[in-house]
């Protein structure tokens, strides 16, 4: 076996030029990616987070040979994504989220047979493999129904079934649980996790923090075409100033009180948000021994004050990172 | 250590072409909306060209070749491109292109299927014209006719391949094709012999392989036919030459177009 990383991207940029108008062409340039470096090891589940338009899908398409980078190089399984496309395509899988991407007049089984042929699933194994993946995603019963009759969740499962039909070594999933109800989303995550046991390397994009936290070994946060951070969940927590978050809630706080909280030892950041009549202070504490009581004491005089501590969530980290990047 | 069981992939152009034919047939059976172009259109073409050639001694053969070829032309050319447009609509163009097989083989399968279904159109025209005129046409040289007929279908498929590339290139290909289609019908001599058109259209027609093939076909079918002055033999040579050129163009264009769409990133547009 080679010890090359599963995915290796260096200085990837991508500029889109879109034209509007027929006679007077307005050319708009969008810098979707502005220098992305990243390495994903074999057997890893890597998660890519980022707000709408951050460039996640663009990066996935470049890594899966469906789009050329404007500059930079990327290798997947040691193969150049712009040059060794045929060899690479046979060894990777791609699942694009959403309703589209299936032949809707024919059955799920026929869809899978077709793509099995195109991807070169050994012919003798085709039927067995199709049945296997249908069973794996729980679509055996519905296998012979036209996919236009499928619900969103069923379509998504079929997308995943198609993605792994040819047993790819690296699987790319772009928002695999988008638009799914909580139960289907959980089932889908379970499927993704079970792939790891089989040694598949996974690169997934998502908008759901808990999904990334639950599934991924490492997470990259993409913001406006740049990686704002890339680390394990624990590492990311450290990055934004500590592992602890204290929340205080009441009907409004004075500016002087806010300033007093900010001065407490170990406090790295205080964010004030209003929820109707209630104001919530989110206090990020760099690991230290500042206690909930001490925070409470500096906000003395608030009758209905509620102070509690919670673990810094990935969402806190994410919002911080994205905020930093936009400022 | 984790294991990934990879068996050697077994993809080939031939397999993809067969898969594509199968998909086309299944789609056709699932939704027979194609009955309209493949049945109604030939019947209408049949009546129209019957009126056009009324009084000509070889009326029946003209009509069948004219209307039949128009129907074939529509099937191969329009159908082949249409399917790629459909891939854009459905969002299946991306998963198809992300497979290791070149897309050209998928298109080839569709064209072959369209050629076959176009034959149904010719058969229909034949039935209609024979019923309306009350005569069964006699073919001058049946063997040559059959061979040339197959050859004509092949030239149509070659042009269809080049057109399909346009559909991969841009979602606006349908518009371009609709505008161009009628000009093609006339320009290639599908409708009536190129030779009776104004002189200036002749050189243009010669750029299209089916013009040569159809002229040859008429030489074989109609006794005393006067087409291109160089006669049947050179028609065949010209037909083969232009077809080979088209296939080469298709090969190059497809590779370029596949590269181009990766550069522009418009695969998902519809
Ligand atoms: N084909 C295209 N032509 C022009 N601009 C494009 C094209 N594809 C993407 N873009 C632009 O590139 C930027 C990044 O888009 P991308 O789809 O990669 O974002 P994303 O992170 O996947 O967003 P989302 O979370 O909404 O899926 C956006 O500004 C988008 O408008
Ligand atoms: Mg996206």
Question: In summary, what is this structure?
Answer:
The complex is a heterodimer of chains A (327) and B (270). Chain A is α/β, with parallel strands linked by helices. Chain A contains eleven helices and 14 strands.
Query: How is the CATH topology of the largest domain in chain A named?
Result: Rossmann fold
Q: Give average pLDDT of chain B, whole number.
A: 76
Distance between the termini of chain B: 44 Å
Shape of chain B: globular
Which ligands, by name, code or SMILES, are bound?
A: adenosine-5'-triphosphate, magnesium ion
Shape of chain A: elongated
Characterize the structure shown:
The complex is a heterodimer of chains A (327) and B (270). Chain A has 327 residues and is of the alpha/beta class. Chain A is built from 11 helices and 14 strands. Chain A folds into 2 domains: 5-237, P-loop containing nucleotide triphosphate hydrolases (Rossmann fold, 3-Layer(aba) Sandwich), CATH 3.40.50.300; 241-311, Alpha-Beta Plaits. Helix content of chain A is 33%, strand content 30%. In chain A, α3 (108-119) crosses α4 (126-136). Chain B has one domain (36-264). Chain B is built from 10 helices and no strands. Chain B has helices spanning 13-30, 35-52, 59-90, 93-97, 103-133, 142-169, 173-187, 201-205, 209-221, 231-264. The radius of gyration of chain B is 20 Å and the shape is globular. Chain B starts with 12 loop residues before the first helix and ends in a 6-residue tail after the last helix. Chain A binds chain B through residues 16, 43, 58, 61, 64-68, 86-87, 89-91, 94, 96, 98, 100-106, 110, 113-115, 117-123, 125, 146, 162, 166-167, 169, 196-200, and chain B through 1-12, 15-16, 18-19, 22-23, 26-27, 30-31, 90-92, 94-101, 106, 259, 262-263, 265, 267. The structure holds adenosine-5'-triphosphate and magnesium ion. Adenosine-5'-triphosphate is lined by residues 16, 18, 30, 32, 50, 52-58 of chain A. Residues 56-57, 174 of chain A line the site of magnesium ion.
């Amino acid at each position: 076996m080679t010890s090359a990383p599963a995915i290796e991207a260096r200085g990837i940029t991508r500029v889109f030029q879109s034209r509007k108008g027929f006679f007077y062409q307005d050319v708009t340039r969008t810098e979707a990616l502005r220098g992305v470096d990243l390495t994903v090891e074999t057997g890893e589940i890597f998660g890519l987070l980022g707000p709408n338009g951050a460039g996640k899908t663009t990066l996935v398409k470049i890594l899966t040979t469906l789009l050329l980078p404007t500059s930079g190089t990327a290798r997947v399984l040691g193969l150049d994504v712009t040059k060794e496309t045929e060899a690479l395509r046979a060894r990777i899988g791609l699942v694009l989220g959403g309703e589209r991407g299936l032949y809707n007049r024919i059955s799920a089984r026929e869809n899978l047979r077709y793509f099995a042929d195109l991807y070169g699933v050994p012919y003798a194994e085709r039927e067995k493999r199709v049945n296997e993946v249908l069973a794996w995603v729980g679509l055996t019963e519905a296998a012979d129904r036209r996919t236009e009759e499928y619900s969103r969740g069923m379509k998504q499962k079929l997308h995943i079934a198609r993605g792994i039909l040819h047993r790819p070594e690296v699987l790319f999933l772009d928002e695999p649980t988008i638009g799914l109800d909580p139960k289907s989303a959980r089932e889908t995550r379970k499927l993704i996790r079970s792939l790891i046991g089989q040694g598949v390397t996974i690169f997934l994009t998502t908008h759901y923090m808990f999904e990334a936290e639950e599934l991924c070994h490492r997470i990259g946060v993409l913001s406006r075409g740049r990686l704002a951070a890339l680390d394990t969940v624990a590492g990311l927590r450290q990055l934004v100033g500590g592992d602890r978050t204290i929340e205080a809630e009441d009907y409004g706080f004075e500016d002087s009180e806010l300033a007093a909280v900010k001065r407490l030892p170990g406090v790295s950041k205080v964010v004030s948000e209003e929820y109707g009549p209630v104001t919530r202070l989110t206090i990020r504490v760099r690991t230290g021994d500042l206690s909930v009581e001490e925070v409470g004491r500096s906000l003395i005089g608030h009758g209905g004050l509620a102070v509690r501590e919670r673990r810094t969530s990935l969402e806190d980290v994410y919002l911080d990172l994205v905020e930093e990047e936009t400022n | 250590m984790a294991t990934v069981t990879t068996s050697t992939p077994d993809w080939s152009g031939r397999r993809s072409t067969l898969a594509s034919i199968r998909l086309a047939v299944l789609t056709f059976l699932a939704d027979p909306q194609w009955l309209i172009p493949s049945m109604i259109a030939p019947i209408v073409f049949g009546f129209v060209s019957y009126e056009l050639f009324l009084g000509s001694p070889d009326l029946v053969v003209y009509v069948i070749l004219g209307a039949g070829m128009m129907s074939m032309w529509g099937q191969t050319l329009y159908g082949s491109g249409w399917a790629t447009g459909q891939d854009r609509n459905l969002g299946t163009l991306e998963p198809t292109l992300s497979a290791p097989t070149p897309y050209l083989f998928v298109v080839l399968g569709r064209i072959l299927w369209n050629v076959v279904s176009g034959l149904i159109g010719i058969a229909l025209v034949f039935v209609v014209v024979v019923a309306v005129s009350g005569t069964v046409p006699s073919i001058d040289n049946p063997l040559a006719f059959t061979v040339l007929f197959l050859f004509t279908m092949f030239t149509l498929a070659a042009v269809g391949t080049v057109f399909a590339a346009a559909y991969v290139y841009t979602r606006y290909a349908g518009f371009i094709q609709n505008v161009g289609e009628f000009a093609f019908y006339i320009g290639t001599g599908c409708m009536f012999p190129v030779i009776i058109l104004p002189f200036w259209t002749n050189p243009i027609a010669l750029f299209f392989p089916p013009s040569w093939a159809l002229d040859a076909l008429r030489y074989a079918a109609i006794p005393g036919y006067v087409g291109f002055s160089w006669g049947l033999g050179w028609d065949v040579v010209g037909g083969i030459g232009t077809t080979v050129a088209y296939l080469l163009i298709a090969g190059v264009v497809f590779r370029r177009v596949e590269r181009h769409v990766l550069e522009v990133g418009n695969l998902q547009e519809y």
